[in-house]
Structure formats: C-alpha cells, structure tokens
Amino acid sequence: MAIAVSARSLTKSFGRREVLHGVDFEVQAGSVFGVIGPNAAGKTTTMRCLLDIIRPTGGEVRVLGVDPRTGGPELRRRIGYLPGELFLEGRVTGRKLLSHYQAISGPVPPGRIDELAQRLGLDLDRHTRKLSKGNKQKLGLVQAFMHQPELLVLDEPTSGLDPLVQQEFHSMLREARQRGQTVFLSSHVLSEVQQTADTVAILRGGRIIAVESVAGLREGAVRHLRFTATGTAAADAVALLGTVPGAGNVEVLESNGTVTLSAVLEGPIQPLLQALGRLELTDLVLEEPDLEESVLKMYAGPGEGVR
Amino acid sequence: MRQPVRTRLPLFRRAFVDSWRSTLAWAAGLAAAAFLYLPLYPSIGGSEQMQEMVNALPAEMTRALNYDQIASGPGYTQATLFGLIGFLLLSIATVAWGAAAVGGDEESGQLELTLAHGVRRVQVVLERALALLLRVLLLAALVFVVISLLNGPSQLDIDAGNLFGAVVLFSGLGLLSGSAALCLGAVTGRRTYGLAAGAAVAVLGYVFNAVGRQSPDVDWLLSLSPYHWAYGNSPVANGADWAAAGWLWGLSAALVALAAVALERRDVGA
C-alpha cells in the first residue's frame, strides 16, 4: 500500500531546546493514524512540520509524496488542517470566514459547507467571536473537511465537542476513510484514537516510543473480567483461572454458595473461554480491553530507563 | 487552470474588507479634523492678532510646531492638518494596521491556519501590505477631497497641484510608519514590536524635525527625519519634493519586501 505521510529521523530544535529527537513513522494511504502522547510530547510540532508552518531541523518528511518545504500551496490545497488551538476572532460570520478559507483551499463541492455545518449542528450565521469553544471547533472541522482533502491533519480534533458531536465527528472520519482519504490525528486521550484509528503511535518526550495497530494493541491489552458460578468452591475456581495464560490479579468477591471472582486478562481470550466452559456460570462480564492501561505502561516503560 | 474571479487576491480582500469599520472610523476622524481646523483659518491664521500671538511665542516653540508659516492659507493647512493632527491620526491608523497585519495575526494564532492553506507566505505579506496601501490611499484621497472642498470657503488659496504633492507625501509618511510596523511584526511575530517600530518611525521623525530645526548644530537630525523629508519645504505652499516622496514610498516598499523575506524564512507560531 502507498505511504501518504512519512517522517524519517525528524528532529526539531527551537534555539538550543530540541523538542523532536528523531521521529520516525509511516502512515498508510487511506488509513487513520492516531498520535497520542502527553502534553508537550511534540504532537503539535510534528503536525506543523507536515504543513510547513514549522521547518524541521533535520530528517526527512514526505507528505503525499512531496517534501512540505517545497510542496507549496499546491500541496497544502490537498490537505485539511485543524490546529490544536483554534483562534477565530474576526467580526465575521462563520459563513464568510469559511468562504474565505474556501478561496484559499482546494475546490469545495457546492453545498458541502452547509451539509457539514448541519451535521455538526453549527449555525453559520453567527459571528465567529461570539461562538463557544465547541462551536469554533466545529467551524475548524468544517474548514478542514470541506474540500475533501487527500490528507486530514487534525490536532486534538474533539476538544471542546460534546459527546453527540464527537459521535458525528467519528462518523465523518469513517466516511473520509471509506472515500480513501488519509487521516493523521492527535489526541491525549487514547479512547478517542482507539475508536477511530487503525494505527496508533505513542509520542513521548519528542520520540515515538511505540507504533501499534489498534488491533495489536487490543490483543496485548488488559481486559477486566468478572464472573459468577455455582456448584464450585472458590479455591477450585481460583485454581482453574491459574491455568489460563495471562490471567492474574484474581480476587474472590463472594463465596457463599455462589462464587464471584474478578481478574484481569492479558492475552488471547480463547483459553479463558475454554477454562470457563467447565463451570456453571450464572454471570460473565468481559470488559472492552482497556488500551489506556497498556499505553500507560508504555509511557512509563522504555524511555524512562534509557535516559 | 482557470480560477474564478472572486478568488483573486483572497488575502487582500479579507484584510481590506474585515477592517472596513476601522477604515471608516479613521476616515471620519480625518474629515472631522479638516472640517474643524480649516474653516478657522480666516479668523485665526490670517488675522493680524494671531500673527502677533505667534510672534510672541518663543521662537523654538513656533519652529517645533511649524507655526512660523501659519499666516498663509497653505502654511496654515501644512502646519495644522498635515503637520500635526492629520499626521497623528494617519500614523496611529497605519501603525495599528501594519502591526496587526502579520505580527498581530500570528500572535492571535490565526496566521497558522491561513498558512496551512494554499497560499505562499510572500503572498500573505504582499496582499496584506496592499490592503494597507489601499486604506492609506483612501484616507489620503479623502483628505485631498475635503481640503479641495474647503479651499474656497475657508480662503485657503491652496494650489491644487501643490495639494496633490502634499497628499502624496502625507500618504508616504503614513505608509512608512505602517510598513515599519508590518515589517517588525513579520520579523518577530509580535504585534507589540511592530507597534513600537511604527511608533518610533513616526515619533522620532517628528521629534528629530522639531529639534533639528532649532539650531544649525543639530540640523543633521533633519536628515534622519522622514517627517522633515516630507514636510521640510512646506509642500502645501511650495510643491512637493518628489525625491522625498520617492524615498518614503521606496523605503516602505523595501520594508514590505524585507517582511516577506523574513516571514518566508522562519517558523510561525513557534
């Protein structure tokens, strides 16, 4: 598959302070690539390098096959960008502001702006500076999506959006992906990336410390598990769980007649199901894998020791 | 590739259209100043009493305020409108516009989003400078029209050609402070530095003129004063020094070019 965005040994220093220490990644065309990391990890700086707002100190960047330094307006017309902090202060209506951005971006299909505004529940006839943070963010999303760019670069796209609008945004992302657009987005919360991205890169302290497919992350992730069984002793149930690879933290919550256990599972679920098949279960809860936990482990893991 | 007409000069259009309120306000201020000052000429500038009063003032003060020429219609217009209140208003307007054009826009975080679109940085600077130029020209044209209207009724007796020359110098002076503000804003990304640079050009120009006119020992200051380049020979009375106009406009253009080069070469919003 083609590569839409790549960075090789990307470094960036502001004066003597190096904020990106050799970032490497590749984004497959037509995929959703999420970058997560704590604040000041270098997410915004990386994104700005993709748009030639900030110039790398070293390394190589390719966006849609072109170096952003030389790609010029032609390249940027093929990109939709949502900055991490969006300031819209003019005494203009959203509609006028968008028609300005329309004039300096790629061609926008007729009716597209109204359609997007309607989906997001944005009133285009209000003055931008009177808009709430969430509504400004919607305006920012419309200007990024309206020309259906080949690449979307979205810095913390859901910040300030209420959950319903977040849902709508996620469906916009899915549609973009189906249309073959590539998405590069950042977040400091994994749950968002986990819902929308194919691949997750974890950026911390100016370095990519892991690139994982969401499916892979899910596999290696920790699931919380709780079940209730009858006709067995607590000790037997605990012993049974002990035979399941990856199961741990077993706790007995209840053991009078019925037995309730909780545990965590790290690894495939098939062996667990086989083991549980031998019990008379009355209740079973196997939670969504908690990627947050596995990622937090990565945050704390390498990098900390290397220094 | 064919571009629809309305997308031509999009940044210029936005910069110009978004500031129409401010353009209108400064235009009203300048017109009001002209309508307040000029009709007073027959009773103030032209009167014997006024001349006696001016003569009674310390000579340094008269020179600093350019009141030595106040007894004629063109001299009065030169000293009061072009030399003082009009200069002040136009300088404030152009410095504010110039500082906001790039530095202010970057500081408020909006330049980043503009640059992420299909524009070149040089184009951003040039189109915004063009918007500044157009606003200055509109204000200057307004001053020309208002003075021409008042010329007869207020017995100013100003030659239209001289007035035109003075207005060209007046706008050049405004442009110079405005483009200095734009330039430093673009170099530093800070509105405040732009304001300081623009204000310095206007204020120092005025002060160097006022001080330089006091004595031959300090008259070298005059050559550093754009204000003096423009007004040293009283253009409303004596016609424009076109070389001075060339310097003012040329330096303004050079500052804009410098701004474009500076912005092209640096990180934005870092």
From TrEMBL, chain A:
Gene Ontology BP terms: response to antibiotic
Any one GO molecular function term: ATP hydrolysis activity
Subcellular location: Cell membrane
Domain of life the protein comes from: Bacteria
Any single Gene Ontology cellular-component annotation: plasma membrane
Broad class of the protein's primary localization: membrane
Domain named ABC transporter: residues: 5-230
Mode of membrane association: Peripheral membrane protein
One matching Pfam family: ABC_tran
Keywords tagged on the record: Antibiotic resistance, ATP-binding, Nucleotide-binding, Transport
Family membership noted in the UniProt record: Belongs to the ABC transporter superfamily.
Listed name of the protein: ABC transporter
Organism from which the protein derives: Pseudarthrobacter enclensis
